[in-house]
Design a protein that fits this description.
The complex is a heterodimer. Chain A has twelve helices and two strands; from the N terminus they run αααββααααααααα. Chain A is mainly α. In chain A, strands 1-2 form a two-stranded antiparallel ribbon. In chain A, helix 5 runs parallel beside helix 12 (318-347). Chain B has a domain at 59-111. Chain B is flat.
Chain lengths: 348, 118
């Protein structure tokens, strides 16, 4: 009986979170990208479908569903289909361990505001899944049997595994401070603004930020889809909603990267000031709503930063990208681990 | 204990299920007017020549191998970092020696040009 309730709770949460991802992370993300790029380039941007063009992404998705779904004759049909499933499936599943607000207590039952935010492997699960995400892009590139796709896929996998190292190492600094892999625990320790991890881990945060840009294949690291040289990169041979799935996954991943950075370094759903100052009780529903909005606002700021950078900074050359990853970020990340360890040791 | 992982598996099924539904919908709803030209591989409007199943630069393999070495190091660092506050000084020094050995390997690879891209 208990398991049925757990599953029912998980089902409701999964539906809510899925709506959140598809509506806000993906649809609103695409809209924001187009609108902000338009402002930066002194254009108007989408303004025909719905108020301020807000319904544009939905119109785009419907259009993509109706488009002809071509698989080239030379392509490996099985893997050509599996690749977008891996990419989008992973982009959605990662949200399983992300806490959206503090625990809420109703009666004597405590509800976690997320699918499994209390899991003691939290951040490890996120890293594991994003690593599997490399398969999606590599398979997409290889199965298309197209030279551009293959090069895009290869570049992308080499880039992602290179920056995953500095990302994982930058994370060790946070783990040293928090002493836990659970995202709820890491957030729980950052209850006021002067205890946010970014203050103790400025170098670690910058390393993590740069690696996140590379991991999500965003400019200045969007080499896998460098249009002037590789046409569309790994998704050249994709059309219809299969292309749309890569597109949605990119925006979902951007939101995930933002959420992870907020959780690790900027206090996650914690308010900058103690909740008691606002007269809100720990574990109450009203506090959870405020925390949730606060969390969303922080993510939105990061997503804005991602978009802002994309339309401001030019693209790296591939050798510059690999040099930055292996010769700058990796030693710096190791140095950050050593410095943090020594710092904590002395303070202890 | 394992019960805590149920929602996780649930979300995995859910996420991949949505992706499969999208794929099936796309292939089912989409228009179908296949011609011979449409099914050829895209190559900037030229007749495609040879296949893409070709050998590629050995650099990519080198990156992959270096990645495995350093990723295993990161995996070793995680339990150490989580338990750091409870560890004895010897355990901390041991990890510093471990990192130093890896650093030596890193500099060797650097000098040999293993991570050089031209």
């Amino acid at each position: 009986m208990d398991i049925i309730w757990t599953l029912l709770e998980a089902l409701i949460k999964a539906v809510v979170i899925l709506t959140l991802i598809l509506l806000f992370a993906a649809a609103l993300g695409v809209w924001a990208e187009r609108k902000i790029s338009a402002w930066i380039q002194n254009r108007i941007g989408p303004n025909r479908v719905g108020p301020f063009g807000l319904l544009q992404p939905f119109a785009d998705v419907f259009k993509l569903f109706m488009k002809e779904d071509l698989i080239p004759k030379a392509a490996d049909k099985t893997f050509h289909r599996i690749a977008p499933i891996i990419t989008l499936g992973i982009a959605i599943s990662v949200y399983a361990v992300i806490p959206f607000a503090g625990d809420v207590q109703i009666g004597d039952k405590v509800y976690h505001m997320g699918i499994a935010p209390d899991l003691n492997i939290g951040i490890l699960f996120v890293l594991a899944l994003t690593s599997v995400g490399v398969y999606g892009i590599t398979l997409a590139g290889w199965s298309s049997n197209n030279k551009y796709s293959l090069l895009g896929g290869l570049r992308s996998s080499a880039q992602m595994i290179s920056y995953e190292l500095s990302m994982g190492l930058a994370l060790v600094g946070v783990l040293l401070i928090a002493g836990s892999l659970s995202l709820n625990d890491i957030v729980g320790k950052q209850d006021v603004i002067w205890r946010w991890n970014v203050i103790f881990q400025p170098l670690g945060f910058i390393l993590f930020l740069v690696s996140s840009f590379a991991e999500t294949n965003r400019t200045p690291f969007d080499l896998p889809e460098a249009e002037p040289e590789l046409v569309g990169g790994y998704n050249t041979e994709y059309s219809g909603m299969k292309f749309g799935m890569f597109f949605l996954a990119e925006y979902a991943n951007m939101a995930t990267a933002s959420a992870i950075m907020v959780l690790l370094y900027f206090g996650g759903w914690q308010l900058p000031i103690p909740a008691e100052w606002l007269g809100l009780q720990q574990g109450s529903i009203s506090l959870a709503i405020v925390q949730f909005l606060n969390f969303m606002l922080k993510i939105a700021l990061f997503v804005f930063f991602f978009i802002w950078v994309r339309w401001t900074v030019p693209r790296f050359r591939y050798d510059q990208l690999m040099n930055l990853g292996w010769k700058v970020l990796l030693p710096l990340a190791l140095l950050n681990v050593l410095l943090t360890a020594i710092g904590i040791w002395i303070l202890k | 204990m394992l019960e805590a992982y149920l929602p996780l598996i649930f979300m995995l099924i859910f996420g991949f299920g949505i992706a499969v539904i999208f794929l099936v919908l796309s292939e089912w709803l989409g228009a179908r007017r296949i011609t011979k030209e449409k099914q050829t591989t895209y190559e900037s409007g030229m007749q495609p020549f040879r296949t893409a199943r070709d050998r590629f630069s050995v650099k990519f393999y080198l990156v992959a191998m270096s990645f495995i070495v350093f990723d295993i190091e990161v995996v070793f660092l995680y339990p150490w970092a989580v338990q750091f506050k409870m560890l004895s000084p010897e355990a901390i020094i041991a990890m510093f020696i471990f990192i130093a050995i890896l650093f030596a390997g890193y500099f060797y690879e650097l000098r040999k040009g293993g991570i050089e891209w031209q």
